[in-house]
# Entry
Amino acid sequence: MKTLVKRDSIFPTVESKLVSNFFDDFITKDLFYLTDRNFAALGSNLPSVNLKETDTKIEVEMAAPGMKREDFKVEIDNDILMISSEKEVEKEEKKENYIRKEFNYHTFNRTFSLPDTIDENKIEANYKDGILHVVVGKKEGAKKRALKTIPIK
# Structure
């Protein structure tokens, strides 16, 4: 048994109910809920990142399951940490009367501004269980600035 649902279309002149329902659902649902979704649900290649700063180091954890450590490139230049990946996947299927080839290209680039207290000689990166861990050490004696509250006038 089907449930009856009444829809007040914002495109009443569109002849096809399928097209009308698509636009109604997109505008009334998807467009307004983009902020509640993660990048994977939107079909983006941008991996999620956790950042943590202590007195001695800055830690970056990037969720990138299904990749290999060789797929990543981690660089630092002028206090900018750059994490990127480029991966090309090619699949080919041969049968008696056809050949099917598929090409996929996955790429992302994330950059992070680092404070001038970092020590570029104390950087480590490893990849385990789908998580890329990058640890950037700070210079000896580098102190974190105290939190300053700005009054609002």
